[in-house]
Input
Amino acid sequence: MSYSQIVVLRCELMAAAAGANASGCVTVPPGKWRIKSARWTPSVAASADASHYATLTLSTNQLAASVSFVTIATALTTATVAMVLGTPRTLALLTTAAANAALEVPGDGTIQIAKTYTGNGVVVGGAAEIVLEKVPT
Output
């Protein structure tokens, strides 16, 4: 019987003002890891508004010193769907070649949740929970 090593990382995004971009990052533990799933749990409720909304993007980079991030999941937005306090939403992992490659993250790589806004935006805060599986060496 073989076992997989699974780790769950939590990446916090402090409640950011309506008209402010914000991001939160978490560093991947030593070794090589593959992201298996991710979800967002809001700590602040946000109404849907097609003119004034926030967009959340989950991305990775391959090295801690790199500033180049690759988006790995479908963005969540409050343009059409409200965020309900404490209700998790799945961050659907992308299947493009670039995203698929970026799902494998080395130790000291970074996972980032970023908020951008349109119009006046909305206040958004919460945490992304990312499930990683160790890649056998």
User: Anything to note?
Assistant: The CA atoms of residues 32 and 106 lie 4 Å apart.
